[in-house]
Design a protein that fits this description.
elongated, 3 helices, 101 residues
Length: 101
């Protein structure tokens, strides 16, 4: 189980690194999130069989890490959305100017 937790933390770190890059590779992030989801399924099935594990420091740390990762992803999504809005506004303005040419 420790190996699965370590793998989860490693994937979390990789996702964080990908989110800090300006030119985001969405396919790579999607792959990492899929791997993370599979790993969480394994860990959750372990918790069903061993409920005391849910109270362990390692699992609580994994939960906190997940919350932090979700916040980072939401923040990055909002940032990208704002950039897209600015791009669209600029593109509309450019089209208006082109009407006069």
């Amino acid at each position: 189980m420790q190996a699965d937790l370590q793998a989860l933390f490693d994937i979390n770190q990789q996702i964080k690194e990908k989110l800090t890059i300006d030119d985001i590779n969405t396919e790579e992030i999607h792959r990492l999130v899929d791997n993370r989801e599979q790993l969480l399924a394994v860990l959750l099935s372990y918790i069903v069989d061993n409920p005391q594990f849910a109270q362990s420091d390692e699992w609580q740390s994994a939960i906190q890490e997940t919350q932090h990762l979700v916040e980072m992803m939401q923040s990055k999504t909002l940032s990208i959305g704002n950039s897209l809005r600015q791009y669209r506004y600029g593109n509309k303005s450019l089209q208006q100017y082109k009407k006069f040419l």
